[in-house]
Amino acid sequence: MARALINLPSTARPGEVIEIKTLIQHPMETGFRPGPNGQMLPRDIITRFVCSYDDAEIFVADLHPAIAANPFLTFTTVATASGTLRFTWSGDNGFVQTETRTLTVA
Amino acid sequence: MKTWALALLVALPAAAGEIAPADRRSGFDFMSRENQAMQQDDGANPGMLWVQDGAALWRDRPAPSAPACAECHGEAAETMRGVAARYPAFDAASGGPVDLAERINICRTERQQASPLPAESQPLLGLTAFVAHQSREQPIAPPEDPRLAPYRARGEALYRQRMGQLDFACAQCHDDNWGKRLAGSVIPQAHPTGYPLYRLEWQGLGSLQRRIRGCLTGVRAEPFPPGAAEYVELELYLMWRARGLPLETPAIRP
User: Fold this and answer.
1) Helix H or strand E encompassing A64
2) Do residue A25 and residue B203 have CB atoms under 8 angstroms apart?
């Protein structure tokens, strides 16, 4: 399991714009670099990031080679109702990681 | 004759010695605003991922029968506060100075009966970063231990020693020409305030030894072998030189 850091406020007022910051530990090996033996290192990257807010997808990103290791993604959303935010990173070699955070809107 | 001597004196560049305390600057001050913001926001600082790794290792037992770090040392936020600011320290058992990573490995082999963690490995960097993180904002306070003095003097001699095909000493860049540029990069003062730190060039966390190896190959000198005593001697002098500056672990550097 990769380490992930997710920063968002735990509470928000209805209609408030909240900022969400995500950071995940991943080498993001491009597939274009030779290793110590001269052979190309196989590509190992995260290809997709999805954030859903109570089953509604609010932010999706496709990631490609040449994105730095430990990708940091930040975005905003409107806090509508109390619920769960689900963050999923998926990529090469069957990499899938899901984290959840709850948001209280009052 | 007198005027000739005076003219020579004026023409020579001022032989800069140690940087005065008021002029001491962390590498942080030479970074772009964006990189500074990345370091200061724990939600954006990728070094915090390693600190999380270290926090888990601090709590976990290396083997079911061996104690975890936390079982002897307790809450790291209290017991490890200020520790990194005092390292490298003298180790009576080995009769020489040890840096923080070596101290962690000594603890592992002697108190936990576990195998030492390999140098520059993710768990060792994580534990070192976690312990050093507890001293964030604490001023660097090298111990006045007289047993360290000969090692520190050797470190200073290495710092002033010309090395490699380019025939440069550390001091020529970092004492005499800091703040100027080497190609596109600003030359910092080489204060080890944030190790282990996340270098964007490395795309990961690395130790001071790794950074020194980078400088040595930069002047086309042969780096000291991994784990050589010279690294700890240099670190002793560098920490002495940086005394008073606050620790920043895990720092970000370009």
Assistant:
1) none
2) no
